[in-house]
Design a protein that fits this description.
Strand order of the largest sheet: 5-9-4-1-2-3-10
Structural class: alpha/beta
Helix content: 25-40%
C-alpha cells in the first residue's frame, strides 16, 4: 500500500508523465525508441512530469538471454541505456509469457499500469508491433490515439500532434477530446534525437504482471528472424527509390535497372506500390520502411512528408525530377531537373561503364598487401549478387565454368583482361569505352597467342591480314582424309561460319551431328562444343569465318 507521501506525489504527477514503450527486438529498433525518449524528455520538461520508459521481459531470464530470433537486446542493458538518455523512471513489466513480443498479451499489462500510474501521454514506435500495441491499448483504455505523428508539442495544457494528411500535402494538427486528459501516440522517430542528460533519479523497477486465464489470444504458428534478403533495404548502403513521376511500369523498370547497376536496393513511394509496379515490402516512408543508406537516389518523387520521413537519415540524397519546384529538392544534396524517362538510360550507361572501369582498376591495383586478387574477387561477387545472378549464370554469361568463377571470387585466381571483356559483353558494353590502351594491347597480345596455339598443328591458311588481332577472321582449313580436325570437341567465344569447299565434312555440334557436302554451309555459336571430321578419301577443305569478342 502506498504511503500518504507517495499518494500525494502520484496525484501531483497525474497526467504529466510522458512514457515511451521501448522495442528491444533489435539494436536498430531500440535506437529509434531512444529518439522517442529524447522527445519524451522535452515534453516532460513542459508538463512538469517525468520521462518514463516501459519494457517487457520474463522473470526467469531478466533479458540477459537473446530471444529465439537471436537479435533481442538484454532488458537490463536497455534499461540502463534508457536512464543514461533521459529516463527518470524505467518500468519492466514481467510475465513468463512475455518472452515473445505479442501485442495481444502485452496490451492488458500496459493498460493496467496506465490505469495505476495515470501518465499524460504514451509514445510508441511506428513499427507493426508498436502500431498494434497502441491500437489495442487505446481500445482497452477507452482513450484517444494520435497515429503516425511527425512531431508532438505540449501547448495550452494539452498534447498536439502533427500528422500528414491528403497524401502528405498538408500537416494536420490534432489533439485529444477535451474531456480526455490522457492518450497514446505512434510517432516517427527520425525527427528526434536521444537526450544526452541522464534521468533523475534514473530508477529501474521490475513489476510482476498477472494476466487473466481466459484472455482471448491469437494462435502463434511460427516466428523467425526476417531473411537477410528482406532486411537488405533497411541496411543497404545504396538505395534507389522510384515514384509516380516515372510514369508507368516501364519507367519503373528503369529505376530497378539503375538500382542494379549501382549495386543497391530498390525502394518505392506509395503510387508505384498501389499500381503494383513493385511489392509493398519496398515501400519507404511513414507507413513503410525507414532507410539509412550512404547514398539515396530519388527518381520521380515529389517529396511528400509521408515519403521523406523515411529517408531523412540518408547520408547523401540525389533527386531527379522534371519539376524544378518539387519539394524533394528542398532536402536533396544534389538535384537534377530532368525527365526521368530520358535521363535514366544515359545515367545507367555511364554508371555501367564506370563500374567496369572500377573493376579493371581493381584488377590492375598494385599488390602491396598481396590481397589484390581477393579484393577483385569481392567486387565480382558484389557485382554478381547485385544482379541476382548465380555463380552458374555468371559462368554462362562469361563463357567460363562455375569452378572458375568461384576461384575468381575467392581470390584464388586472378583473371585476365579478357574476362572483363566477356563480362562487358554480358552487359552489352563496348570494351573500348572503358579499357585503357595498355589493356587493349594486352588483349590483342592474348588473341595473337591464342591464334598461334590454334594454328600450330593444323593446316590453316589465313585469308585476313593481321588476323590474330581482329574480331573477324577468315581461314581456309584443310583436314586430312578420314581424320579429325582435333582430337576432342572444343569451344570458344563468338560465332563461326563454315563453308565446305571440297570433300565431305562431319560437324558434331553439341549433341547433334551435321553432314555437309561441297557448297553447303552452317552458322552457329562457337561457344557450343564442336568437332570437325573429314569423311572423304581426300583432304576436306573448308572456308571458316570466326567472329570473336
Amino acid at each position: 500500500m502506498a504511503t500518504m507521501g507517495e499518494s500525494n506525489q502520484m496525484a501531483e504527477r497525474m497526467h504529466r508523465d510522458v512514457w515511451v514503450v521501448c522495442d528491444r527486438r533489435s539494436e536498430i529498433l531500440f535506437n529509434g525508441c531512444l529518439k522517442l525518449l529524447g522527445k519524451a524528455d522535452q515534453l516532460a520538461a513542459g508538463t512538469g512530469g517525468r520521462a518514463v520508459a516501459v519494457l517487457f521481459d520474463t522473470p526467469e531470464h531478466r533479458g540477459e538471454r537473446a530471444d529465439a530470433c537471436g537479435q533481442a537486446l538484454s532488458t537490463q542493458a536497455v534499461a540502463r541505456d534508457c536512464t543514461r538518455h533521459g529516463a527518470d523512471q524505467v518500468f519492466i513489466l514481467e510475465h513468463p509469457r512475455f518472452e515473445i513480443p505479442r501485442a495481444d498479451l502485452q496490451a492488458p499489462a500496459l493498460t493496467a499500469l496506465i490505469n495505476r500510474q495515470s501518465p499524460g501521454l504514451v509514445l510508441l514506435p511506428m513499427t507493426d508491433w508498436g502500431r498494434e500495441l497502441a491500437a489495442r491499448t487505446s481500445g482497452e483504455c477507452a482513450c484517444g490515439l494520435m497515429a503516425d505523428c511527425v512531431d508532438i508539442q505540449y501547448r495550452d495544457n494539452r498534447f498536439v500532434g502533427s500528422c500528414p494528411a491528403w497524401s502528405g500535402r498538408i500537416l494536420a494538427e490534432i489533439t485529444y477530446a477535451p474531456h480526455q486528459r490522457f492518450g497514446l501516440a505512434t510517432a516517427q522517430a527520425h525527427g528526434f534525437a536521444p537526450s544526452q542528460t541522464p534521468g533523475d533519479p534514473g530508477q529501474i523497477e521490475s513489476l510482476a504482471v498477472s494476466l487473466p486465464d481466459d484472455l482471448p489470444l491469437a494462435q502463434l504458428l511460427s516466428r523467425a528472424a526476417t531473411p537477410a534478403s528482406e532486411k537488405d533495404l533497411t541496411n543497404a548502403d545504396i538505395v534507389v527509390v522510384g515514384g509516380a513521376g516515372v510514369g508507368n511500369i516501364a519507367g519503373f523498370a528503369r529505376v530497378r535497372e539503375l538500382a542494379t547497376v549501382l549495386g543497391g536496393q530498390l525502394g518505392a513511394t506509395r503510387p508505384p506500390v498501389m499500381n503494383h509496379w513493385v511489392d509493398e515490402d519496398r515501400l519507404i516512408g511513414q507507413t513503410g520502411k525507414t532507410v539509412r543508406p550512404r547514398l539515396l537516389v530519388s527518381v520521380g518523387t515529389s517529396g511528400a512528408i509521408q515519403y521523406t520521413s523515411g529517408i531523412m537519415e540518408a547520408g547523401a540524397i540525389v533527386a531527379i525530377n522534371r519539376d524544378p519546384d518539387a519539394q524533394i529538392f528542398q532536402i536533396a544534396d544534389i538535384g537534377v531537373v530532368a525527365d526521368a524517362i530520358t535521363f535514366l538510360p544515359l545515367l545507367i550507361d555511364r554508371v555501367q561503364k564506370a563500374t567496369m572501369r572500377a573493376l579493371a582498376d581493381q584488377r590492375c591495383a598494385p599488390a602491396e598487401t598481396g590481397e589484390t586478387a581477393g579484393r577483385f574477387g569481392d567486387r565480382i561477387r558484389q557485382f554478381r549478387m547485385a544482379r541476382q545472378w548465380s555463380v552458374e549464370e555468371l559462368a554462362e554469361r562469361t563463357g567460363q565454368t562455375p569452378e572458375y568463377i568461384e576461384g575468381v571470387e575467392s581470390g584464388r585466381s586472378s583473371p585476365p583482361v579478357s574476362f572483363l571483356v566477356r563480362l562487358a559483353g554480358a552487359l552489352s558494353i563496348d570494351p573500348g569505352t572503358f579499357l585503357k590502351k595498355t589493356e587493349q594491347a594486352e588483349l590483342r597480345d592474348m588473341r595473337a597467342k591464342a591464334y598461334s596455339q590454334r594454328t600450330r598443328h593444323y593446316s590453316y591458311q589465313t585469308l585476313t591480314d593481321g588476323g590474330p588481332n581482329d574480331h573477324l577472321r577468315a581461314f581456309m582449313v584443310s583436314i586430312e582424309p578420314r581424320s579429325d580436325h582435333k582430337p576432342v570437341a572444343y569451344k570458344h567465344e563468338g560465332e563461326e561460319f563454315i563453308f565446305v569447299w571440297e570433300g565431305e565434312l562431319k560437324l558434331k555440334l553439341g549433341h547433334k551431328t551435321h553432314i555437309l557436302k561441297p557448297g553447303e554451309s552452317i552458322h552457329f555459336n562457337s561457344d557450343i562444343p564442336h568437332k570437325l571430321t573429314s569423311l572423304s578419301n581426300s583432304p576436306t577443305r573448308c572456308l571458316v569465318v570466326l567472329y570473336t569478342v
